[in-house]
Amino acid sequence: TGKEKWPRGDEKIWKAGMRGVDTDVASITKSFVNHVQTSLARQAHNLDDLGAYQAAALSVRDNLILNWDDTQLTYTRKAPKRAYYLSLEFLMGRTLDNALLNLGLKDQYKDGVKELGFSIEDLLDKERDAALGNGGLGRLAACYLDSSASQELPVWGYGLRYKYGIFQQLISPEGNQLEAPDPWLDNQNPWELPRLDVAYEVRFYGQAERLNDGTPRASWTGGQEVLAVAYDVMIPGCYTKTTNNLRLWESKPKRGFDLNSFNAGNYEGAIESSNSAAAITSVLYPNDHTSFGKELRLKQQYFWTAASLADILRRFKNLGKSITEIPDYIAIQLNDTHPTLAIPELMRILIDDEDLDWNKAWEIVNNTFFYTNHTVLPEALEKWPVPLMEHVLPRHMQIIYDINLFFLQAVEKKFPGDRDRLSRMSLIEEGFPKQVRMAYLACIGSKKVNGVAELHSDLVRTTILKDFVEFEGISKFGNVTNGITPRRWLDQCNPELSDLISKTLKVEKSVWLKSLDKLEGLLPFAEDARFRREWAAIKQRNKERLAHYVQTTLGFTINTHAMFDVQIKRLHEYKRQTLNILGVIHRYLTLKAMTPEARQKVNHRVVFFAGKAAPAYYIAKLTIRLIVNVARIINADPDTKEYLTVYFIPDYSVSVAEVLIPASDISQHISTAGTEASGTSNMKFCLNGGLLVGTVDGANIEIAESVGESNVFFFGHLTPDVEDIRYQHMYHPIPIEEKCPALANVLNKISGGMFGDGGVYEPLLKTIRQVDYYLIADDFDSYIAALAMVDEAYLDKTEWIKKSIKTVAKMGKFSSDRAILEYAESYWNVEAISVAK
Ligand code: CBF
After folding, report:
1. What is the CATH T-level fold of the domain 524-815, as seen in this structure?
2. What is the fold, at CATH topology level, of the domain defined by 20-289?
3. How high is the pLDDT of residue 2?
4. Cα 289 to ligand 1 centroid, rounded to whole Å
5. Domain map (residue ranges) of the chain
6. 203, 322, 488, 503: least buried by Cβ within 10 Å?
7. What is the ipTM of this complex?
8. What spacing in Å lies between the alpha carbon of 260 and ligand 1's midpoint?
9. Which run of H or E residues covers position 647?
């Protein structure tokens, strides 16, 4: 009716007490001081920057909580269809700056903390990154949360609250990557709300017995039971009251510890079970694009999906609807195959607990889940050994066998007698041991499947899921090209450019940051000399900011008038940092061979690398070592150091990316064609006016379509050729000296010890000289040619800046707002809902 009865006490008194921090500077300083004294129990004379950051964060949090409360109340009252984004990774980075910008309070806090003797920049710098992810997939999830809230969509994220996020990367004097833990929660986390009352029991192991009572039901008993406890993280939208929720689960023992063992004096035994429960959420697996089949990882996946589903269903049940209406109220997005166990888990609940028949349960499941594939690399496609599954999740294994049986019967009906097809499509891969193919399970259990860029979605349809397209029809298999949030990746990381854009377009940030197509209005200004000067001056200051960062963290002085050339991403053979560093060596050798006069005509170039390698990925770590040692030699060479220097920035993170990206002139996205599903850092660089050097791969293709091919530097073989070339490598290999003499020369210099003991790099060089699976030799010459075109283009600074402006102007498509709205409209059928002011 809209006139609900106030639940308790005097409504007026309640309402008078409900206020956040007023947004004027005096109220902000008051709230800050109050938190210093009460929440932190400190005083002005012993408050350091870290304490001041905490006080500021707590004060901002007060406002977020009220918005969050109102948002949740609105969702509860209006009961719209909601979407849930299940992701094992959320790479959030820092929160304070983002929250201040989204709330429109940055200037007030800046002034407020200044009055109290602090600088807002120093405070922002004290926050540790929330680094609960490895790379693109986790950062995408974070962008989608930001966009969901900004577009007022009722979306919650569900993930794990790892005690240790992605490891800290250190570089030894020899250039080796060393790993240290990331105890990101040690200083307390002001952004999370422990919900100790929201807890669910999750079972592992035990026995599953079919009831054989004419129903598909079974009972699952015994084994280990642990508790999943909720921690809520507020996700503020941009210039809106909507503040969504990210719910992260922590594992805890169900009972404090084993009292029997304790009483019997077996203290170690008494805490063993509690340690094993806590271990589930203790650490993020630091692997990207590899599937290891480890029991703890399987337990993480089930723990998280089981707790999330229990929570989602509890909320649904509060609506008082029939269980068959689940798909009308709930859409669940599976971010890659990691949460696929949610499919058999929902089947288990519907059959064993809700007593639904198989077909009805399967229909509900099929209309509730959506699956995004993020890679076609074979080594990344998850498979779980059947014996492990039977041991850890016996009931789920039974259900998977049943799903497979019914599914293969349907395939047999459509393609009678096609035994090869049946074995190709089976959820169970034969072998020793047998394995469950999680991508197939995610595919058949979902209403729709999508890839993350046009080319990648085509590859999904024509390679890994080809049989499924033939069986289920093409309309189930779509594409949603990834996006990035312009709030963090322009307004926050490049505030001067953001201000210039607003001033030039004469449009408020609250508008264009949420309708990024408005950037097109910048196009005519490419012809305006004054505007170009302002544009170039901002790039220059961003370079100086990066130089300052390198100076203070590494102690190196950088020539900020050089071209800044950046490649930052996880270290992986398919991403080809190796190609880049071999290209750098080639440039160095060319410079060395020149006369001093000839050198003076060459562009000065500073090459930056940053990225982590999975701790067990030997070749990737060797690439880091090579980069560091090439940098050591080149940067010290008096003949060339003015023209070429190289830096490996350790411990890459979201916050480090925020400094590197706005400073780039060019960035490199040079994966072997067909291997990078989308890439999202390519979008971030282009949105900040850096030009793209890349292969015809992933979202590079769509970026080029948008900004114009004349504004990107493409090179390399195309996707359809890659398989043929690999075949040639295997059966008709051509010696590298013949195929690519320039590269052979570079490899020989490394082997010969130009960058330290050549023998160390032999395993890495062998991957190129022998199999060359990633086509380094095949693409080397065209890569060098593309870099020469970059040099040529950079000579004409006016044209260069025009390209930079035109690129930014045409990046509107790559906002994650566009992407999330595509999910909401074409996949989930979820609508925006506004929260009353
Ligand atoms: O879709 C987001 C990103 O996901 C990956 O990082 C992944 O983990 N599979 C891909 O490698 C990226 O191309 C993609 O942008």
Report:
1. Rossmann fold (3.40.50)
2. Rossmann fold (3.40.50)
3. 52
4. 9
5. 20-289, 524-815
6. 322
7. 0.99
8. 48
9. strand 644-649
